[in-house]
Design goal:
With 261 residues, the protein is mainly β. It has one domain: Trypsin-like serine proteases (Thrombin, subunit H). Strands 1, 4, 5, 7, 8 and 9 form a 6-stranded mixed β-sheet that branches. The longest helix is centred in the C-terminal third of the chain and has 13 residues. It starts with 8 loop residues before the first strand and ends in a 30-residue tail after the last helix.
């Protein structure tokens, strides 16, 4: 199945109670998926920023149109009370938004990414990755216009994260970039261009000069999370085996500095 993952992307923004500025955002990206015949929007919990979950406005189209209808939201799900190897990790930042039962893929013009065997898989070191998200610095909401700074960035996977079993790392060096940071790409889908399948979701990232590093959640853990939601499970417990390779990685000092959402 050939799918355009970039069309599943939406900006995280909110409807306010202020008539003068009806819409606002703290930055962030979400993407639509279909899993076991149910639709979800995946993002990071921290992308909600200072806004209430009830204010989330998910548009039908990738580029919000005037009078676009928001998707009716049923609930918001995220991991809680992590234990053992999951304690003190970024797994608690994973968030899935569910929709009312009458909402189908047709509501979003068929753009949700279908998660099934063959369409997802863990990346490997050296694989070329594509990240499609929203750069906050390139976005603006000036009523009545909403302009979102959609981007598609290429990275290279550098393997599992050393301090979090749910995360992998990827790096990039951009040639004369027209942006100074990657704030806003949290929640963006990560597509393994080498393998031709979805491999995760950006959780955090940082940029110094033309160099950028991201940490992204492995798709295998996202699928486990969705399985738990779909089954109505109160708890999900599993053992994860992380494969590593002996590779010389370019871990520069800029990678240890503060990371933006």
């Amino acid at each position: 199945m050939r799918q355009d993952f970039s069309q599943a992307v939406r900006a995280v923004f909110f409807q306010t109670d202020c008539d003068e500025f009806l819409y606002a955002t703290d930055g962030g990206t979400l993407f639509l998926v279909s899993f076991q015949a149910k639709l979800y929007a995946l993002t990071c919990k921290h992308a909600f920023g200072t806004f209430e979950p009830r204010q989330l406005f998910i548009t039908q189209e990738k580029n919000a149109q005037k009078d676009s209808k928001p998707a009716p939201i049923k609930g918001r799900h995220f991991p809680s009370r992590p234990v053992d190897g999951a304690a003190d990790t970024d797994v608690v930042d994973l968030c899935a938004v569910s929709f009312e039962d009458q909402i189908s893929a047709e509501f979003f013009h068929g753009t949700p990414y279908v998660i099934e065997n063959g369409t997802v898989g863990t990346s490997r070191p050296g694989h070329r990755l594509l990240v499609c998200g929203v750069l906050k610095s390139k976005s603006q909401i000036i009523p009545p216009d909403i302009t979102m700074g959609f981007c598609q960035l290429e990275f290279h996977d550098t393997g599992p994260c050393m301090f979090d079993p749910f995360l992998r790392q990827a790096v990039a060096q951009f040639r004369q970039p027209e942006f100074n940071d990657v704030t806003g790409i949290s929640g963006s889908p990560v597509f393994d261009k080498t393998a031709g399948r979805l491999c995760g979701m950006v959780v955090r990232g940082g940029m110094i000069g033309d160099k950028c590093r991201i940490f992204y959640m492995d798709i295998s853990d996202i699928v486990r999370f969705l399985e738990g939601i779909r089954a109505g499970a109160r708890n999900t417990y599993y053992t994860k085996v992380i494969e590593t390779e002996n590779r010389s990685l370019d871990v520069s000092d800029w990678a240890t500095r503060r990371f933006a959402p």
